[in-house]
């Protein structure tokens, strides 16, 4: 299927609406990244958040929009984006797999019980023509080596200034989480805040940082630096 003919379905006002990527991307320079699934580990902690953090940097390099493709339905994608506080990246809920097939990244993950999925990848598309693609290898597991936001930005402009990624895991009522967000905003540092429910807190925090039990847990460039106290000391 030609890329310009691929369609996906959004729900607007509770009703399904078919959207053609040919209409979305015609005459535009867009970055499109694809991932195996909403709410899965690498997609949630690294792949999507980093593109969101660097959205304005992509715009500064002449990119019109950045899109995330996943073979999930629109309801799941909206819930995932809301959970991560994603406001800039546009979602492509590719539940039927048409966009993934047109990009050549449709794959089967039946061995994991996932069924058909999109291979982790990224594309620079100019007026519906693929100018560059970064597609992860078919090695076992979930390789994430070439399709990240930094690699795509480096291809577009090797001299682009790329800030280190900051991800904060916390809860809504946590006073130190509030202080952390205020400090980062005062320093004009972009970050992604992943809000955890009370039932998620102990499980997620323990999995992210073995032995930890408090929030926030702050990751800079993929490494946990600790909480608010450690961040404040680092930014002095």
How would you describe this protein?
33% of the residues lie in helices and 28% in strands. The protein is built from nine helices and 13 strands. It has helices at residues 21-25, 41-53, 55-60, 74-84, 98-103, 149-156, 175-186, 198-208, 228-234, and strands spanning 7-12, 15-20, 29-34, 65-70, 90-93, 106-109, 115-118, 121-126, 129-135, 166-170, 192-195, 217-220, 223-226. It has a five-stranded mixed sheet. Strands 11-10-12-13 form a four-stranded mixed sheet, with helices on both faces. A two-stranded antiparallel sheet has the order 1-2. It is globular, with a radius of gyration of 18 Å. It starts with 6 loop residues before the first strand and ends with a helix. The mean pLDDT is 91. The active site is at 43 (cysteine sulfenic acid (-soh) intermediate). Residues 2-161 form the Thioredoxin domain. This is Peroxiredoxin family/glutaredoxin. Keywords: Antioxidant, Oxidoreductase, Peroxidase.
CATH class annotation of the largest domain: Alpha Beta
Report the helical percentage.
Answer: 25-40%
What's the helix-strand series?
A: EEHEHHEHEHEEEEHEHEHEEH
Number of self-contained structural domains: 2
Shape: globular
Share of residues in strands = 25-35%
Average of per-residue pLDDT values: 91
Tell me the name of the CATH homologous superfamily of the largest domain.
Glutaredoxin
Number of strands: 13
- Strand order across the largest sheet: 5-4-3-8-9
* CATH topology grouping of the largest domain: Glutaredoxin
Number of helical regions: 9
What kind of sheet is the major sheet? Answer: 5 strands, mixed
Structural class: alpha/beta
